[in-house]
Description:
The protein is mainly α. It folds into 2 domains: 2-40; 59-116. The protein contains 5 helices and no strands. It has helices at residues 6-30, 37-40, 59-83, 85-92, 95-116. The radius of gyration is 28 Å and the shape is flat. The N and C termini lie far apart (69 Å). The model has no long low-confidence stretch (mean pLDDT 82).
Amino acid sequence: MLENYLPILLQLIIAAGFAVVTLIASALLGKSAKRNVIKDSAYECGMLPIGDAQPRFSVKFYIVAMLFVLFDIEVVFLYPWSIVYKDYLAAFGPSILAFAFVFAAILLGAFGYAWKKGVLDWKS
């Protein structure tokens, strides 16, 4: 029965060996470069690392992110509906289309409410 676990043990040994060899090679080859202050400084998209590491964000960013998630979840509910549309249409008639319109109307109402409240206005 232990021979069934031999491939797993072999894979673990190879993975651990690769990690150790990679670390050793990196330590040996990485020391050959000359070090200076500029090479050792943090690199952030070409910008100098000056200032606070965690800037404060406006609440609008989080509200827009939540709205994105809310309207993105709409696809999660509409995709299964579109898959079973023909089967449900044959069984129950056109009521499935009415349910889809009610769902879309609720989402459109939520979008209109967010728009009216100024959530999507970036100037304020």
